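Exercise 7. Predict the joint structure of the components listed below.
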Amino acid sequence: MSLLIVGGTGTLGRQIVKRALDEGYPVKCLVRNLRKAYFLKEWGAELLYADLSIIETLPSLLKDVTVIIDASTARPTDSYKAEEVDLAGKIALLEAAKLVGIDRFIFFSILNGEKYSSVPLVSLKLKLESYIKKSGIKYTIFYLGGFFQGLISQYAIPILEKQSIWITGESTNINYIDTQDVAKFVLRSLTLEKTENKCFPLVGLKSWNSEEIISLCERLSGQPAKIIKIPMGLLKLFRQIAGFFEWGLNISERLAFAEVLSSGDNFTSDMNDVYKLFEFDQIDTISLERYMQDYFGRILRRLKELNDEKERTL
Ligand SMILES: NC(=O)c1ccc[n+]([C@@H]2O[C@H](COP(=O)([O-])OP(=O)(O)OC[C@H]3O[C@@H](n4cnc5c(N)ncnc54)[C@H](OP(=O)(O)O)[C@@H]3O)[C@@H](O)[C@H]2O)c1
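Solution:
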């Protein structure tokens, strides 16, 4: 089985590449910046240049590939619209996959997506899901909530750097998960026929709202957070204004998505059947407490070392 991983430089993609290589799979990565992706080559993956927003670069990539794992998504910093990557580019990839008879396409969508079909980024996911299901290619789709890794820049770093954290008043509960655990399920799905043509929620052990995550970070860092609460109405207004301008379309789409994640909804799911089917034990899944403890432990130790070094040189 030979894998093509799309989005290998991303938060989730890199963990999938790492695990796939550790498990002995031959791994090719579709990357649009060979220099940025060089670390994947050092790990043992083969790099293939292509860009989902430049459709002509795609078809030649699939020689000797049996499975495509697509962990890509448009970056908010890119100048083109998300649709070019998250819909048009991926449809082109699927069409090329059909032609060469790819065995399986693995895709990541969003938990509760059908409730938020009017949100542009969610609607792209839903359209692609429907395209995949009708493509005739065997697929596995995972529904995700949010990643532990995203909480570092959102909460942990601002607390350490004494910067403000902006939250809305709504209490949204999200079962965040470590991307290493997502990678574990993804690789296992390749060995389980019963995961073909199926969709699974893939979420962490416990749900957390912003205030609970902030308290956890405060406790582990020993520093208080500076919290600024913004009303949802203001977030909506800013999104609408940004949406009037060409330059603001990407921002507006991201803010619409941020609104979903601040809506007061629950992004949780019962994982008992998924654990049973994938033959994993919940006890082996990393908790947010442990993940944050490791993170703050490492950072605070390093800060202390730097301080000691500074004092020695004075
Ligand atoms: N993050 C979350 O909390 C979350 C929640 C639910 C679902 N998901 C889904 O999970 C998947 C992984 O998300 P993530 O947060 O790990 O993504 P990410 O860190 O933002 O990484 C995005 C990846 O897509 C690649 N990419 C972007 N535009 C591209 C293009 N034009 N051509 C080729 N590659 C391109 C990026 O390459 P460069 O490095 O070159 O930019 C990068 O490798 C996505 O499908 C996402 O929608 C994520």
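Discussion. The chain has a mean pLDDT of 91.
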